[in-house]
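Hi, here's the filled form for the chain we discussed.

Project: internal
Contact: R.S.
Residues: 124
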Amino acid sequence: MGGADRGSVTVQMVILAPVMFLFLFMAVQAGLWFHARSLALGAAEDGARVAAGEHASAGQGAAAAADFLASGGGSDVLRGAAVSGSRTAEVATVTVTGSAPSLIPGWAPEIVQSASFPVERITG
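And the returned structure, exactly as it came back:
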């Protein structure tokens, strides 16, 4: 074995290990963000569907979205979640905001998801 190559594996690992950990943390962070975003979108869609009912209100839609968040992991998945809803004669909209959990202290990726459904009504 050549003496010039002694210790080269150690140097390679010192350089390569942080890069591998960076990619690992990025993948986990992306998964946390995607899961929080999916939960917020599901809650917004469920709330908008309820609010679009013929005799429903925007408040009922917001309550349905909040229930969906609570049953889906709530504050563990979407931190600081807030739900708002609006309803006109034609469209019911629910918006869910919050932040995804983060592996980086002090950084909280913002999540904003909104869904709209046409309001059910009798037409003649």
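Let me know if anything looks off before we file it.
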